[in-house]
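Sharing a chain and its predicted structure for anyone who wants a worked example. Both blocks are below, sequence first, tokens second.
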Amino acid sequence: MEIDKAMPSLKNQAVNGTKWTTARTILTAITGPILLIVKTRYLTPAEFGVMAIINIFIGIIGVLENFGFNTAIIRKDEVTKDERSSLFFLQVVTSIVLALLLVVSSPLIANVFDMPSLTSLLPLLSLSILFNSPVILFTAFLEKEFQFKTVSILHICREIILLVSTTLLFQALTAPLYAVVIGQVIAVGFNAVAITIAAFKYNLLHLRLHFKLDDIKPFFKFGVVVGFQQVVIQVTHNVDEMIIGFFLPESILGYYHFAKNLLNKMRQLLTISFSKVLLPVLSKVKHERERLIRGYNQMSVYIATVTLPAFVGIALTTNSFIPIFFEERWLASSNFFIILAISYIPYTISIALGTNLLYSINKPKLALAIDFVTNLAYILLLLLVSWLQIGLYPIVILYGLYMLVKSIVTQYYVYQQFNRPFFEYLKLFTGLIASTLIMVAVVLLAQNAVLNDMSVYVDFIVSVILGVISYVASVYLFEKKTFHDLVGMVANRV
């Protein structure tokens, strides 16, 4: 990658960081779907709908709890002992206030969505907010020092504990929703203790009884922009579920949340390994614009090479992989999978990298402006569709269109920063798009001509094999350089 060439002194750190975040991502990608499979065995679609609402409010509070300070910490050249202490006490107070706010508002939330169980579930889950307080801050300090190995190992342990504890609690408790919530609290509690010990081990805290507003001003100036942006993103990406949960039965929300949740895990798998390391590295080379944009283009192509066939493949095989990996009762979510899988393609390729690049060149306000305008337009249109009550699928399709438009707008302004035409960005993916279309044609032909009457297992296995072969062959034909680059990366890791 060009970024590595630009900054040889950072190469080992970047490679090591990528290695450990990749390992973390792979493990999460394994445990996440396994836990989801377990949940689909014990939770009804209606209970999945309740979990969707819980996740929405916990996600929003999680962003408010952090509010961009972690990004500000990583970007700042040096964080003094006084600043670390002030940030810590601010973090603790913020977490306590937000936890109490969730407890007090839980009856209101339960009444709005007509989900009585939220009255007791949300206060219980507020414990995770308190436990997460040191995790947010101490993780930022560790990542600033490129301690990705430690962070990744602790994250992997947390995911394993979450999987094991939740599974055991499903067996022990008669109320499956409580098993999910208590398992989450246990996992976050472990992570809080472990990450605190690690931060002290690396002598990164130097905490003492000290708090001054002047200490946090440098972080607040940048963090408030990033934090507000993250709040807007969190609300925007969940407002569709809030509206579905308000107007439609819990089971419908459950089917939709199931599809969206699984696809989000895929999206994270495809982007987090790169994006987690990308911000610190990009921040170091932000003044070398030409090499920066070339490295950015390369990263975009690499992600697209995997993203296109992955999401399109899900859309092609949804009617077979759902009964295989989950249960047939979840087939009602198949249409959601098809619409959302296609919609996630441009978003996965574009947003994580584009936003990180804007942060690295000190353009957080531009990133915020893009989010604000696109998100506001989406929310207004969504409210209009909901008010007209024209059905469920317009809401889902509108969410897909929102991701497409936001991706285009983000990349347009990214390229503006480098005085490059937006058409140049689109040309990066012509060979990959052609390869994907060939894959689609091959798989659909096989499904309609040969696999139509076969079992779901045969349909899935043959479709995957034909899809992989046709796509890889097409990439070799249209994108030889990308093909050899990725093969070389895989060979070096093996």
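Comments welcome. The two ends are 19 Å apart (CA to CA).
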